[in-house]
Amino acid sequence: xxxxxxxxxxxxxxxxxxxxxxxxxxxxxxxxxxxxxxxxxxxxxxxxxxxxxxxxxxxxxxxxxxxxxxxxxxxxxxxxxxxxxxxxxxxxxxxxxxxxxxxxxxxxxxxxxxxxxxxxxxxxxxxxxxxxxxxxxxxxxxxxxxxxxxxxxxxxxxxxxxxxxxxxxxxxxxxxxxxxxxxxxxxxxxxxxxxxxxxxxxxxxxxxxxxxxxxxxxxxxxxxxxxxxxxxxxxxxxxxxxxxxxxxxxxxxxxxxxxxxxxxxxxxxxxxxxxxxxxxxxxxxxxxxxxxxxxxxxxxxxxxxxxxxxxxxxxxxxxxxxxxxxxxxxxxxxxxxxxxxxxxxxxxxxxxxxxxxxxxxxxxxxxxxxxxxxxxxxxxxxxxxxxxxxxxxxxxxxxxxxxxxxxxxxxxxxxxxxxxxxxxxxxxxxxxxxxxxxxxxxxxxxxxxxxxxxxxxxxxxxxxxxxxxxxxxxxxxxxxxxxxxxxxxxxxxxxxxxxxxxxxxxxxxxxxxxxxxxxxxxxxxxxxxxxxxxxxxxxxxxxxxxxxxxxxxxxxxxxxxxxxxxxxxxxxxxxxxxxxxxxxxxxxxxxxxxxxxxxxxxxxxxxxxxxxxxxxxxxxxxxxxxxxxxxxxxxxxxxxxxxxxxxxxxxxxxxxxxxxxxxxxxxxxxxxxxxxxxxxxxxxxxxxxxxxxxxxxxxxxxxxxxxxxxxxxxxxxxxxxxxxxxxxxxxxxxxxxxxxxxxxxxxxxxxxxxxxxxxxxxxxxxxxxxxxxxxxxxxxxxxxxxxxxxxxxxxxxxxxxxxxxxxxxxxxxxxxxxxxxxxxxxxxxxxxxxxxxxxxxxxxxxxxxxxxxxxxxxxxxxxxxxxxxxxxxxxxxxxxxxxxxxxxxxxxxxxxxxxxxxxxxxxxxxxxxxxxxxxxxxxxxxxxxxxxxxxxxxxxxxxxxxxxxx
Length: 950
Known about the structure:
Elements: E1 3-10, E2 19-27, E3 33-40, H1 49-55, H2 59-63, H3 68-75, E4 83-86, H4 89-102, E5 112-114, H5 115-122, H6 131-138, H7 148-167, H8 171-182, H9 187-201, E6 211-213, E7 216-218, H10 243-257, H11 265-280, E8 283-287, H12 294-309, E9 313-317, H13 320-337, E10 344-346, H14 356-365, H15 371-384, H16 402-409, H17 428-438, E11 441-445, H18 446-454, E12 465-468, H19 474-482, E13 484-487, H20 488-498, H21 506-515, H22 522-552, E14 568-572, H23 581-612, H24 616-644, E15 650-656, E16 666-671, H25 675-683, E17 688-693, H26 703-708, H27 712-716, E18 720-724, H28 731-734, E19 735-740, H29 753-769, E20 774-777, H30 781-796, E21 801-804, H31 812-821, E22 825-829, E23 846-849, H32 860-871, H33 876-893, E24 904-908, H34 912-915, H35 919-925, E25 930-934, H36 939-948
Parallel strand pairs: 1-4, 4-5, 8-17, 8-18, 9-11, 9-12, 10-11, 12-17, 19-24, 19-25, 20-22, 20-23, 21-22, 23-24
Antiparallel strand pairs: 1-2, 2-3, 6-7, 13-16, 14-15, 15-16
Helix pairs in contact: 5-7, 5-15, 6-7, 8-9, 8-15, 11-12, 18-19, 20-22, 20-24, 21-22, 21-24, 22-23, 23-24, 29-30, 29-36, 32-33
């Protein structure tokens, strides 16, 4: 096969736009690139500035270029008898057909392949399929992105890499792929069919390193064979060894492994503090700033303690990201430097693991809702099974539509066949559970921690000692889990999985099986199923009505991003229900009754089926359907408890966004206070709970956290240790905090013209001084929007790009990556950028904080907490709003200096930090940067002077 890899640069994306550059790389039968053709093309229209900005192609470049006619004359012979390949090939293909047509050639009728498809299928764990990113990952030379010849060559090299990856696939996986695509008449199907025929001619297919089971090729082994660590050794490796002696060995190994390793005073203090809390059975609050090395600061004592005393230590993180970082970076390092074998297991919520039984069923039955997208996702997962040892969805880049597919194949407790499942020994969830059972240290997340508590400690192995990282989120997560949060789609998903239409859904699947089963009661059960359909549709209609009317009660919030969850918010008060609440309760009552009927009939039929038929294929279906009826029961009870609005200790509210209206509805019922529950569940029960984060103290005191987390009693009884670690960075030399003291102030979430103009001018001047590399944090999306356009206009003349959250497409990770990838850029972000964004080094030089990050006082939970404090004769502003804002402010400040080499500027445009009585809490809470205030017009000269003075 001969391939032609094509790339065009054009004046725009519309069919009427023109080609300005052509790149074509020819791949020969032996997979070598035999020729690269490239040429500029002279367009009949000027090149738009944004295209020049993107591609670097200027009017001068195309001034004397050949016309399209001449270029096509040279190109057309090269396209003879080839398979056309491109990255997002539809774009280039459309331009090719239109160019052939314009210049009088016949259209291209050959096969067309897209490298995007190959990357998705063959490299399911790549975090992005953008050409630039993939080139970097594959170490493919791509020196001039967005220039046609460079793009075509990079695409060709990536395509060859994909072909080599297909060569290494086990035969069975290739057969599965060929089979998947055979149902549709596509060029991709043709390609896999041809690849399979070639492979089957080979005499000796290699089977190294794979397990073959039920016609799937897997990387994973039977988990029953996984032994506890040190199972062969008789003696405890830490017998008679103190923690200091253990640490001496670890440090020696670290120095040998990492020549750059240097001891950090703060980390050594942390190791001692955590060990002390373990030894004395006490709780510990420990603030460890960026650069402390806090993961090792708690993992090493946890490993020492668990191995020496032979009891598990549980570690919990807030984000899955941090869990992944521990898995990929810290645990492998510790495995090499700890002088004996130990096991640290990662254990997530059940829905993160693939259920192989459901996946097998879905593939064999071709049970696809949207065939085109779902066949791609299925293909991706067939390849992923030859690579993954964990079956954890975080390893998969599923794209937007993949999430719906995942929901139908994720592991769930209600549909688990346990030991009677043919996949039991290979099951990813049971493997993770078994690994956690035999591990010394188990790393989970806050979410799973609370799910476990709610399930009566059935999910996690038992533990007496717990380390909570990112502990400033604990209260928030506790509220969500100890309360109730349900989405519109929670109910819809359950209903459509039971019955979407007469062909799709688990009930129609069961009906089809019964029809051919020959069971004497089959027709009776089929009529039960037929009678359930209209009732399920009735529930859906009523739930749509209820969601619609609930959404209609909410006013729009002025400071939120469009499409933000929480853009529409309404708190519901038990003693003051909305005026038409009775009508809504009537709809809820109909839902409750119909759901009850469906669940009763359904469960009775499931029990009869279980007794009647022991055939595996319907056993798995019956289990899945029983699980769905259970889900429906839980949803029915949640809706009922919400609509009752009868608990004064609970905050009830609705949220939604304007894009999806009632389909975005979320209902919440969260306890006002979780401190009592945290105390009862953790601090009274566990011997030792370590809570750490970069932001736990306010004005050098832990009092706020002690009260919020329910640690007051432990503190009074001397059961609580606290520790504020010194920063490892030299903040006075590394960071300068500047406050323009004459800056205009602002009321509410929208700035007046004077404020916005002054801000735009000042941001632009500062960005020029720092050559972009600036992150601007807003507390309200409306204000971000006010600044975005004028700032973009001023800076584009200086060659500095402005990227805005919610304006430019992409999630936080994508926007951050764009910001890091472009030398001179300014990134505007709201709430989610205040923490968890890591941009080390030169990419970030200055951080501008537009307003102090107070939470909107009208958020239902903040409002309810404030009322509670007023009842206790306390000042909600000083007790709640200020400490919350200080912690957020410290998180924002922490984005700037991420290593001992970083230097940077922080500008705070909110003069309340100087003028108000509470401003000092913000300044005193920072880790000691150099602070200066001055008139606005002196700020930029001072910034330039400080940056140049190294």
